[in-house]
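Lab notebook, bench 4. The sequencing result for the construct came back, and we need a structural model before the next group meeting so we can plan mutations. Quick request posted to the team channel:

Model the 3D structure of this chain.
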Amino acid sequence: MTASDYQQLVVLLQEFSQATDRYVESTGAQFGTHRTDMNALSIIMKYQQRGALPSPKDLSHELQLSSPATTAMLDRLARLGMIERLRSDQDRRVIRISPTDKARLKGRQMFMPLGMKMMEVIGTYNDQELQIVTRFMNDAIAGVDAARQEAVTQSPANPANPPAGTSINR
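Done. Here's the predicted structure in token form:
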């Protein structure tokens, strides 16, 4: 592969990401949710599949939202009947977020068409090709996460990286 081929693949990945964003935006608008809401519901359901429920702090961390923005999003999802805030029996200060049956139903309604189209696409590949695509997608996701982490830690907005000539100790 040439450098141009690599660049074309990166552009295609960007276009795929933008296409999925457009899908989430358009279907979310039909159900009265924002993209952040949909991402939060996805994370909540991922936690639940792993046998746990996230805290608001977990969601704040995963979505890179401030505490007030996370609270506003959770309030919005609660008003829509998509989540429940559950208090721990052991410590009433601990709150976990659970998806409702309505969230699961709406999620299926929203993402079933996309899932069906993706299954059609996947069905055109043989097992060996799918193993390569799966490995690539896992590596690509890890690469994006690593790039995000580097960008955050190297950002001038990060208190650990003050602009040159600035002292942390004032």
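Residues 88 and 94 are 6 Å apart (CA to CA).
Will bring this to the meeting.
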